[in-house]
Amino acid sequence: MRRARRTLSATVTLAVACTTLTGCFEEPSPHDAVRDFLVGWQTEDYELAAGRTDGDQATVRKALSDAKLELDAASFRFKIKSVTVDGDASKADFRAEVDLGENNPLWEYDGVLPLHLVDGSWKVRWSPSVLHPQLKDGERFAVDITPNPRQPVVDRSGEPLQTDTVLYVAGVYPAQLGDRAEEVVARLSELTDYAQDRLLSRIRSSPPDKFVPLVTFWRTRYQALQSKLGAIPGIKVVPQDQPVNPDAPRQIVGSVSALTPETEQKLGGPQRAGDSVGKSGLQQAYQNYLTGSTETKVITLDLKTGEEAAQLKEWPGRQNVSVKTTLDRGMQTAAEQAVADSDTSSLVVVDKNTGEIRAVATKGMHQEKDALAGKFPAGTAFSVVAADALLKAGVSPKQRLDCPAERTVGGAKFAHAGQTTTGTGGVGGAAGTFQENFAKGCVTALASLARRVKADDLKKSAEAFGVGRQWRLPLKSFSGSFPSLDGDADKAKAIAGQTVQVSPLGMALVGAAVASGTWRPPVLVTEPTSPDPAAETVPRAQPDPVPMDPKVRAALTKMMRAGALGTPAQAGRAPVYGVTATAGNQLTWFVGWQGDLAVAVLSKNYNAGAVAGGFFSALRTSS
Q1: CB 611 within 8 A of CB 342
Q2: pLDDT for res 572
């Protein structure tokens, strides 16, 4: 498809060029000969072009046709720069533009057409230098391609987050094929569905003594076709190690496949046989950084020796680079251990001071689709955000609040799971403080505070903690959604997290904001600094950090310390801060931190605080 578009473009340009040239030149000058030769070359009307030379017609036609094949060119375009006449001799200077196809660079060079009068007609004085000033008798063009191997995705210390896997690259040495090139590509095309003309043009444009990779296979596919490949004369298979087998977090790092006819057509250049293609995660998001760095040279070859005679042009290609993440292998191992005992859990760990993602682990959930981009009810975990607005509104952590089993606020009914009605009092008939009800996640007590805070203030606190903010991340992610509020019932539902949606990543950032005193957007990749333009997810501009009110943070820190005391989350040497919350449908949350690490855990039919505690404990053991 890509080559077809280029050829069409060249044809349209040619129509304009022909009109221009025809209008400019009149007989009996050499202009007609120059025009006919270049137009014939450009449009592949080699008979027209050859007729305007003094060379053997068949030799000229073949030379022009071979030049296109040897360069694997999608098109030629020419611009006449000047024509000078000196008696019965003339010289035309022209500019050539050669589209080398497959997203390779556009090759531009200046050429010269020497002309002289032959029986009263102007003719191009034929020699190979007509095609290029440095092309000589006994030489041909070739395009020498040298692809660089795929680079790895690495953790924050620079260690690869994948191991090598052997891929099998089938190719040929053109010099060994003789006149069997067409037969070889026909049989290879039948096995692999690669287009015959593309395979053949790669062979014909390459140096004859250099291995030309044509098709890449994974082990299973190669083993299935091994005997059939071996039966094709001239096909060689070269094993090649590539860093494509992902380590944890596997779905964040992403998977890789060998290049196929479909992906080659979709991606275009500079991918070629021997390359691998990212299918998911960071491997897909940074495909053009990790692979596709191809050095391209246009050269001339000595037809007798096959050796390079001259280098006409070189493009080093964009250097492919590793993708450096913020992930920490030790923390990832601890996170994997922490979720192992649950059936359905998601754990995200971020650095409280930077927002950098240190680990993403799941069990029965997807690391990108659920941990980063999942849309889940916040439940009473949202009380961390709501408390920011309530404390600013003047609600004291010591204020007494009832925690009945049921309560109605503005017509909306709320029930506190596991609590029996004790009149108007709290547990055991006595009202607890705001801090105590926050710590145990009493939804009926928290909902009763809806009358104490304005809807706009709740919205501002949600935004300050990143809910609904547009941040920059190379993978799909969800920052949360906050509803419009109209009346006490809506405010109470929001405080209880019933109408707020969040992701584990978003809630980990909430915990990090209280831990550090500043909300910061998430960071997953530190190098390269610019996004891959070919990625499906286009990162947005990163929002600015948002500092918390120091007094509010101090009060909320004490409340979250109370929320973690005596729970399974308290593990390790340092104190743990956080809240364990319910969100309906057997979902539980833990949002909090220990030391510099903030975590959010979402579990189903399992205590999320126990998963958090398991992480802190495993981290202590491994450190």
Answers
A1: yes
A2: 78
Q: What is the pLDDT of residue 103?
A: 57
Residue 39 contacts by C-beta under 8 Å, 6 or more apart in sequence?
14, 17, 18, 21, 45, 48, 49
Cis peptide before 533 (omega within 30 of 0): no
- Report the alpha-carbon distance of residue 190 to residue 95 in Å, rounded: 41
Mean pLDDT score, 327-335: 97
- The pLDDT tens digits of the residues spanning 362-371 come to 999 999 999 9
Name the pLDDT band for 288 (thresholds 50, 70, 90): confident
Question: What is the value of pTM for the model shown?
Answer: 0.82
User: What pLDDT shows up at residue 291?
Assistant: 82
**Strand residue runs (E) in 248-387:** 256-258, 276-278, 294-302, 308-315, 323-325, 344-351, 357-363, 376-377
- 538 by Cβ neighbours in 10 Å (0-12 / 13-18 / 19+) ranks as exposed
**Which amino acid, one-letter code, is at 183?**
E
Place of tokens 């006819």: 261
Mean pLDDT of 396-411: 96
How large is the C-alpha radius of gyration of the chain? 35
Burial of 15 (0-12, 13-18, 19+ CB in 10 A): exposed
Intra-chain end-to-end CA distance of the chain, in Å: 54
Instruction: With beta carbons less than 8 A apart as the criterion, state whether 170 and 188 touch.
Output: yes
Query: pLDDT band at 50, cuts 50/70/90?
Result: very high
Q: How far apart are CA 438 and CA 456, in angstroms?
A: 22
Q: What's residue 426's pLDDT? A: 43
Residues 6+ apart with CB under 8 A from 35: 21, 22, 25, 80
What is the distance between the alpha carbons of residues 505 and 478, in angstroms, rounded to a whole number?
8
CA-nearest of 147, 58, 102, 128 to 312 is 128
DSSP 542: P
> What separation in angstroms does the CA of 525 have from each of 348, 528, 530, 540?
16, 7, 10, 14
Q: Which pair of structure tokens corresponds to residue 536?
A: 């499906």
Rounded Cα distance between 63 and 124, Å, is: 14
Average pLDDT over residues 184-212: 92
The DSSP code sequence of 60-104 is: HHHHHHHHHHHTT-SEEEEEEEEEEEETTEEEEEEEEEEE-STTP
- Give the mean pLDDT of 37-42: 98
Length of the chain: 623
Q: Name the DSSP letter for residue 580.
A: E
Predicted local distance difference test score (pLDDT) of residue 333: 97
Cα–Cα distance measured from residue 609 to residue 611, given in angstroms and rounded to the nearest whole number: 5
Nearest to 441 by CA among 514, 393, 382, 481: 382
Q: Rounded to an integer, what distance in angstroms lies between the CA atom of residue 554 and that of residue 557?
A: 5
Contact 527/323 with Cβ under 8 angstroms? yes
Structural tokens at position 374: 């999942």
Given a contact cutoff of 8 angstroms between Cβ atoms, the answer to whether 546 and 563 are in contact is no
Ramachandran area for residue 428 (φ above 0: left; ψ -120 to 50: alpha; else beta): left
Average pLDDT over residues 142-169: 91
The pLDDT value recorded for residue 378 is: 98
Classified as helix, coil or strand, 401 is strand
CA angle 26, 32, 34 (to 5 degrees): 135
**Amino acid identity for residue 334 in this structure:** A
Within 10 angstroms of residue 499's Cβ, the number of other Cβ atoms is 19
Give the span between the Cα atoms of 90 and 121, in whole angstroms.
12
Sheet of 308-315: strands edge to edge? Answer: 139-147, 294-302, 308-315
Q: Is residue 413 classed as helix, strand or coil in its secondary structure?
A: strand
